[in-house]
Write a structure and sequence with these properties.
It contains 13 helices and 14 strands. The two termini are 20 Å apart. It is of the alpha/beta class.
Length: 290
């Protein structure tokens, strides 16, 4: 399919970007904590891993009640490298920082992006995935406006576009900044926004890379006739492992772990399983929200 080549190019770009970003640690050294967490983990024979309580494809509960997903596999790999057992602790995103600060978990691998605000309170490892803003473009818009393969080409016809966005998101901010002359339709949910594109009420939708990639994976039939994904990503969001402030030994070990997982191809294998193949969808207990 047409979008397959684009995704392969995206994967190559992501791996290259990760290699560049990985040259510099994503944390500023701080005071060493009162206890060496890395030693505590090995002595207890357990790595407590905070994961999201439901964020496809990063973490989800399978039909058998166990946890699966990109972050779960990465957590299993991390625990195995440490020679300990993983213990997954599901929680909402809003509890990540507090869980680390209160020693409820040793690390967080929860589809969490590095932000300036969060970095004041916790450490971030080198990124294991790069995301950002992506676009789902209506084929009807292509028929009307001609070839539109790049962001700059879309911006060149901005005044002719109707753009669907989820209200109050960074996706809306990005779209309004790049398409100031476009007409905007705002929605409460991302599914409402993509429906507007499918119904030809909007020419395109702007949303985060993970959602666009996942939607394309779950709606391959619509890619042939109704929409074209432009994956980008057109901004850079870094998905990192969160760690407690002050635990420099654990941070350095985790950075080395991410480098090794990338270098051996283990990260690429996990990426392929969750973003290239849809086989994991069969393990879900029901039809997921897209």
């Amino acid at each position: 399919m047409r979008h397959r080549t684009n995704k392969c190019n995206v994967v190559s770009l992501i791996l290259y970007t990760l290699a560049l970003v990985g040259m510099t640690a994503c944390a500023t050294p701080g005071p060493v904590g009162p206890a060496d967490r890395l030693s505590q983990i090995t002595q207890s024979n357990e790595l407590k891993i905070g994961i999201n309580d439901g964020f496809l494809p990063f973490s989800f509960q399978k039909k058998d009640g166990s946890w699966g997903g990109f972050d779960v596999e990465l957590g299993n790999l991390m625990a195995a490298k440490l020679g300990v057992k993983p213990k997954f602790v599901p929680m909402p995103t809003s509890q990540y920082v507090k869980a680390l600060q209160d020693n409820q978990v040793d690390v967080v691998i929860g589809g969490m992006t590095m932000t300036t605000q969060r970095s004041r309170d916790i450490y971030f490892s080198k990124p294991y995935l790069v995301g950002g803003q992506s676009i789902l473009l209506s084929r009807a818009a292509l028929d009307r406006l001609g070839k539109l393969d790049t962001l700059s080409q879309l911006m060149g016809v901005g005044e002719k576009l109707t753009i669907a966005v989820k209200k109050g998101t960074s996706c809306e901010d990005f779209a309004r900044a790049h398409f100031a002359k476009a007409k905007f339709l705002t929605f409460e949910t991302r599914l409402q926004a993509i429906q507007a594109v499918l119904e030809k009420k909007a020419d395109l939708m702007v949303h985060d890379y993970v959602f666009v990639l996942l939607w394309a994976l779950m709606n391959r039939d619509k890619l042939e006739t109704q929409v074209v994904p432009l994956f980008g990503p057109y901004t850079q969001d870094y998905y990192c492992i969160g760690l407690p402030k002050g635990q420099m030994d654990l941070l350095l070990w985790t950075d080395n772990f991410v480098d090794e997982a990338r270098g051996t191809g283990a990260l690429g294998d996990i990426y392929e399983r969750y973003f290239e193949s849809g086989a994991w969808l069969d393990s879900l207990p029901g039809v997921p929200e897209q």
